[in-house]
Amino acid sequence: MADTNIKTLGELKKSGYTPKTIKEELRSNLIVKLKNKEKIFEGILGYDDTVIPDIERAILSGHNILLLGLRGQAKTRIARLMVHLLDEYIPIIKGNELNDDPLNPITRHGVQTINEHGDNTSIEWIHRDERYVEKLATPDVSIADLIGDVDPIKAATLKLPYSDQRVIHFGLIPRSHRSLFVVNELPDLQPRIQVSLFNILQEGDLQIRGFKLRLPLDIQFVFTANPEDYTNRGSIITPLKDRIESQILTHYPVDVEESMSITFQEANILPEQKEKISISDIHRELIEMISFTARESEFVDEKSGVSARLSITALERFVSSAERRMIVNGESKTDTRIGDLWGIIPAITGKLELVYEGEQEGPENVALHLMSEAINEMYLSFFGAEDGEDENKYISAVKAWFEDGNILDLNNYDDDATYKKKLNSVPGLKKMVMEAEPDDHEILPLMELALHGLSEQQVLSKTLLNDKITFSDPFKGMFDDLEN
User: Which residue, of 234, 249, 264, is where some domain finishes?
Assistant: First the structure.
């Protein structure tokens, strides 16, 4: 444990402090956490058996890391959490711009300071949170931004020739000495800028213009990239990829339950919403199914991916749709409904990269199509007959009621009592649902799911008009037309 009360180099030497490189820090602290069975990447779900072990192996190997994966796969969050593997505090020479180690200075300024003041050299302590630097790679990033450049104003002010190291204005990377440096969207960097990273990654030093300058920088690099970028906007040049020791592939959740956990953890649902609005697990799963369906849809570009943010923002809007209905109806509490799903369409359309066929359909129609597919899949999981099994015996009763000319209008703004009354008015519907042996609070959501599912199975007809969904017999309109 660092003693932050130490203020001079002499006191630091007497304390027995031993300097470590940043990779040594990460490695030693990771080993301690692994031995103690501590959670290392808090809040990262679904990677326990895949991505996280690979990252831990890279850290133990002292490797720089490239996290490669589609959008919304927690790449940046993982990089930010790595800072917790650093020592809580480290000493630096006070007033030094490159976080010089008092026992191992690399800058001319640091060496001169120690030569002048010796053991009386003032030191200060910086927290690990100050040792995280993140840069979003964009095509306009220059070598001066990352590495540095000669500063003519500094040269004129200090009356120094351009050959003097002190006229250099250091860029982000040198200022990240003894820190974690993250470059997001690496392929967006121009190839000539990527070339400037060669020496830093391989030899750990840098070169600025014509200076014979060697700074053995101590940096842990983490890069993130989206495979789509290799064809759309740029690429990681091969020599740079060769110098990044560990390339780790991220992925989307492999099952719906895992995805639901991530969404519920990340969604910004206010305490007052949680208190007043009951969210059915059926509806939470349905929202996840929309994302899973989108990732396999012929209308969506699979190379672009479907971010986990789709499910997160969809759940937030879904809850807000129920909340708005509750407020409009003057109710104090409510439950979510499938009808509230139509409020999530704006959360879907902005998250999808459509292929040509999808563009022809239009974003909203694609969103409705995905919702329909998800509903159908959910319906089959509850009511679908397995091979050799009989169909739910109460479906025929529901179908017969609609064949008699009855229709059911479910208005999105029906109050809870009206909504329940309308669903219970369909003979056989509740009995059909009870065959699935649901909990009491899941009966109404399943009754509504059954109606939507029957319409996807073309047993019923479903019409959407403004805020109203009408269920009827699919042949009624056809016969009416014939009679007319």
Answer: 249
